[in-house]
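Re: that chain you flagged

S.,

Sorry for the slow reply, it's been a week of failed gels. I finally had a moment to sit down with the sequence you sent. For the record, here it is as I used it:
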Amino acid sequence: MKLKQLFTDDSAVSPVIGVILMVAITVILAAVIGSFVLNLGQGVQQTAPQASFSFDYNGGNVTVTHQSGDSISGSQLNTTGASWSGSGETWENKYPNSVSAGDSIVKNTTASGFNGETIRVVWTSQNGETSATLSQSTAPGGA
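Prediction finished late last night. Pasting the C-alpha cells below so you have them in one place:
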C-alpha cells in the first residue's frame, strides 16, 4: 500500500464539498422565501413608542397629559379605568392626527370616585396585534 499516494489523492473531495454547499444554499433560500410568504417579519417593525404621561386627580375627574416623548396617533391611544362614567374626552376624538407633549384629555368617573383605581394609558399597534402600557397611575383614596 502506498501511504504517500493516499494523502495526496483528492479525487473525492470536490463532489462532497459541492453537495454540502448546494444543500446549505437550498436551506437558506427556503428560509428567506418562507419568511416572506408567511409574513413573519411584520410584527418586528411595530415597537411601542416611548412617551411619558402625568395624571392630575381633581374630584371626579382625572386629567391625563402627554409630558414628553414620541408623538403618537390618537387612534392608537386608549386610557383605561374601571369606573369611567361614560363621559369625558378620548385621545382619538380630541387629537385624531397626533398626540404630542402638552396635549391632555379629561376623563370623568362615577359618583363613587376613583378610590385607589389604577389608570393606564395603553398604546395599540395599527394592526391591533401588539399593545403596551405606556404609563399608569394609582388614584388617591381606596382601602
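What I noticed first: The radius of gyration is 29 Å.

Talk soon,
D.
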